[in-house]
Amino acid sequence: MMSFKRLKYQLLLDNYPNCPPKEFMEVKKSAFRWVYENIDNEKNFKPLHLISDPPPKMLDDSDLMCLGYGLSLFDSFEKAYSKYKNLFKSKRNFSKSVGSYIVKIDIQFDDGMASIPNIQGHFTFHEYENTDLRSRIIELFSIFDSDGKFSL
Amino acid sequence: MENLVYKNIDNILRDNLIRIGDLINFDGPLLTLYEDGNNGNLYLLDWVDNDSQTNRWLVYRVKSIKVLNFLKRKISQFELFFQDTDPKYHIIDIHRDFKLKDSQLIEIATVPDSYTPNRDVFFDIIDCPSFERIQNFILKSLPLRTIGYRSKKTFLSSIKRSTGSRYSSRKVQYFEKQKIQKGVSANLIYNNSTHQVTLSRHLSTNKIDIYKKSNNHVRTS
Known about the structure:
The complex is a heterodimer of chains A (152) and B (221). Chain A is α+β, with helices and mostly antiparallel strands. Chain A has helices spanning 10-13, 77-90, 95-98; strands at 29-35, 71-74, 101-107, 112-114, 122-127, 137-142. The longest helix of chain A has 14 residues, at 77-90. The N and C termini of chain A lie far apart (37 Å). Chain B starts with 5 loop residues before the first strand and ends in a 7-residue tail after the last strand.
């Protein structure tokens, strides 16, 4: 299902050709995202390129891209957890950038447009201008237990 | 961020770095391959830390064969990072609104544990947006490679396919029987429009190594 509604960061996306790509579509599904414990933290549902603390990881201008103005989501809890755990193994300070919780959200057709998930269950989501994904939160899971170890 | 003991600034190296591609990119470059345009040495920029203002990358030299083995999942990221002889590591702290070329590349005395990759982390092609570019670059940068053949029969068949010449089989057999004098090495080279195959006899072991190079890029068996 396609729509001509305005995307939240349309002005910024217009700086890139084919952004978002034509294969992005409206979807209705559960999705999972890495977030900080405080659900009202503005970084939780802000695209990477628009977060200044910490700043986005950029070596040069080629790291500025269309994807950076979308939200990273996963199509299952297991895949979100597994990817986090794998990245944490090689980048132990990784959690500083993305938080240490996984939130489950219930995306509706009129929330925005999504890419097709890859084999890791990861997809990019561009919100429509009036979307507030905090209103779609179903559940919040802690990735670590009280001892600081992975909870699963 | 971790407190570090700094040694020397090396902005000459920084200025010569040419980006090849990201071995790992997830929400930004996490492990990126660079070439020193001055001498062809390869370096990895390995994201390790950040704070409210800055991202930090660990920078270390790496051999092309190690990168290839990492791409083939033969070695872990730890083995890519580990330097057994004369280890040297730099960091580069890139502040918000700045880029690599604006930042200082500084050698550090020791690498904190939290910056050391885990030993069981291996390459995942899904996280590598530049796989073909990196692989082609690495293959072109390798010296002629030794490729093993299971048997002389297989090798001779391969030569025949490469050169289209049955005569070359006899040449190989003759080459094998030749006596090698000390201080002399012997090479036998086959060329056709697509490949160059070199047989090289070792002085001490009399063993024959076989090198095969595409005229466009290096191939492995």
